[in-house]
């Protein structure tokens, strides 16, 4: 369950949180290609006791204030989404000179475009996780549940049944992607979530897992700058973007694979009768991810025909990514001192892995506040 801090914040917690908001604001400003945005002066930040409003930009005070209740009950990606929305109000007033316009008028919408902000992220706007937790019955959510049930069937002890369920789930995801491309869904049908929490350093397997999700789950993964509130510094978070149904499925696959790695790694250490270091776990975990990726690739090849051509471009997702990350760059990583035997064992475990039940579990998101 999310920790709640509904009564009072300690001075230390409030300071860390306000500092985190300031760092995120600076990062959004400094990383923007528009020189007008980069010339902005930071506002003041505050925390308030409002429950009906997520956050508010006060033009006269030059202040962005956040609801303590919102901060206590939502993860940092939701907080950052609302911060960008309020920053767009600031840009509308101070850069685009939107005096006399309605709050969400043309200048505000232009500011959202400049910042890659969500114009809806205010008031009673529910997060994606909230919509899932409250049992939304939209066609996309219904499709998500259908795909998840097929993943659950992939636990079958009968290898043919397991592989058939996995293949059907992947096929549904392919079909939905084709439907999305044909209907030309607008960008607001796409969404972005953090997978895991921001950190100053991420282990190797998380990079491999990001590549797997991009390759097999019709989403785009980006290592984005994000504040590590506990440390008071900017780090990185894995952000996944795509159609809502695909993002939720990728989020579940991400959690399941990491849980599988933890369990099977503990079993392997018991079998060996020794504790191995963290870098050795990364060797094994990278092997698991590679093995599972090979399994998914094999399922694609077994299907008599693929619904997707060899290379499919999603122009709407490309536009969404370009708008959200105007300065996106690709980096390569070098790995040294690996244990080939552990990687091999991980690959074998990954090829045996099947997605299991637990998809419908409605986990409450953790709040943005660090625990005391």
From TrEMBL:
Residue limits of the DUF7168 domain? Answer: 203-324
The segments labelled Disordered in the record are 345-372
What InterPro entries does the record tag this protein with?
A: DUF2786, DUF7168, SprT-like_domain
Q: Which GO terms describe its biological process?
A: response to stress
What are the TM regions of this chain, as residue ranges?
none
- Record-annotated SprT-like domain positions: 54-116
The name under which this protein is listed is SprT-like family protein
Instruction: Name the species this protein comes from.
Output: Desulfoluna spongiiphila
């Amino acid at each position: 369950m999310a920790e709640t801090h509904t009564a009072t914040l300690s001075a230390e917690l409030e300071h860390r949180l306000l500092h985190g908001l300031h760092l995120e604001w600076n990062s959004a400003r400094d990383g923007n290609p528009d020189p007008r945005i980069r010339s902005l002066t930071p506002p003041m930040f505050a925390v308030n006791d409002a429950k009906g409003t997520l956050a508010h930009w006060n033009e006269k005070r030059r202040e962005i204030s956040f609801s303590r209740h919102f901060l206590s009950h939502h993860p940092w990606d939701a907080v950052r989404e609302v911060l960008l929305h309020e920053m767009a109000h600031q840009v509308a007033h101070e850069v685009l000179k939107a005096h006399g316009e309605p709050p969400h008028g043309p200048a505000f919408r232009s500011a959202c475009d400049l910042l890659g902000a969500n114009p809806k992220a205010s008031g009673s706007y529910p997060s994606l996780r909230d919509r899932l937790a409250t049992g939304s019955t939209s066609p996309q959510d219904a499709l998500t549940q259908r795909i998840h049930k097929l993943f659950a069937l992939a636990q079958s002890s009968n290898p043919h049944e397991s592989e058939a369920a996995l293949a059907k789930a992947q096929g549904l995801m392919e079909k939905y992607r084709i439907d999305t491309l044909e209907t030309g869904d607008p960008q607001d049908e796409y969404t972005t979530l953090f997978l895991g929490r921001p950190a100053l350093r991420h282990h190797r397997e998380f990079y491999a897992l990001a590549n797997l999700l991009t390759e097999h789950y019709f989403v785009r993964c980006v290592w984005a700058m994000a504040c590590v509130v506990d440390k008071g510094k900017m780090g990185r978070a894995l952000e996944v973007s795509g159609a809502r149904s695909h993002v939720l499925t990728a989020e579940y696959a991400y959690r399941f694979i990491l849980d599988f790695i933890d369990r099977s790694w503990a079993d392997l250490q018991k079998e060996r009768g020794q504790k191995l270091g963290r870098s050795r776990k990364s060797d094994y975990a990278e092997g698991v991810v590679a093995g599972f990726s090979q399994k998914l690739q094999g399922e694609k090849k077994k299907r008599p025909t693929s619904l997707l051509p060899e290379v499919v471009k999603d122009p709407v997702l490309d536009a969404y990514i370009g708008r959200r990350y105007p300065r996106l760059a690709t980096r390569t990583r070098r790995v040294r001192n690996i244990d080939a035997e552990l990687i091999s064992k991980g690959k074998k475990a990954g090829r045996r892995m099947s997605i299991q039940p637990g998809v419908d579990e409605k986990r409450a998101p953790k709040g943005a506040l660090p625990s005391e």
